[in-house]
Predict the 3D structure of the following.
Amino acid sequence: MTGTGTRVASLHTYPIKACSVLHHDVAQVQPWGLAGDRRWLVIGPDGKAVTQRDCPAMVRIRPAWRPGVLTLRAAGRADLAVAEPTGPPVDITAFPKTPFAATLADPAAAEWLSDELGRPVRLVWQDDPTRRPVPFEYAPTDRVSFADAFAVTLANTASLAALNGWLAEAGSPEGPLPMNRFRPNVVITGAAAWAEDGWTGRRLRIGAVTFRVPQPVDRCVVTTTDQQTGERGKEPLRTLARYRKVNQDLLFATNLVPEATGSIAVGDPVEPLDGAEPV
């Protein structure tokens, strides 16, 4: 059961979609996601998004971010500071379901990233996050950064423990898996395993900020990628297919949509609203 002991265990953002993580004690909540989360995107010559799905080497890029400046970092490379560009936006087709405009970063960023990844790429900045709707017809007014679906992803430490228990029972050499495989923004502790299943379609309060819970997260091949080395395995998708397959989706964690702006912090209480209790 979820009660007063449920709290935020950790907070995370990913300045460049598909690249490494930043950890926070406090995060600002904006309508389209946590401040600084997935506002930069790597694209190929065809304008499509380059992510860990097809380029696991992106785990090597460990950016730093502060308002106005992104710093590209990787082992053995000189850092490169990239200012948020102010040029005119250009149309990109990174996400076919939701084409929109973004701004190209300095060509030096494209050169740095292309050299690191071994393929021609460019970097774009989401100068206006109100341009991109979520890719679901049932949420026409919601807006999102360069995240796949909705603004925020929440994961539950007890659900990860349950998943790792299944891996141990099966004698999997790949377990236990760390939470970073799922690239969440908010990690909670103190809730029952899979408590988040009971929150879909309801509301959740984290600290003083309320969120809608539109849907669980369907996991992809990125979760099989070691976030330190880029090496791929078969887990957790193989085990999720056995225990967590719903309508062909492999579910772990849940999406959130902010109902207001504000700040959330590690240690904040997490409270389901509207009678949202786990089943």
Q: What stands out?
A: The chain has three helices and 20 strands. The chain has a mean pLDDT of 94. The first helix runs from residue 107 to 117. Residues 97 and 135 are 6 Å apart (CA to CA).
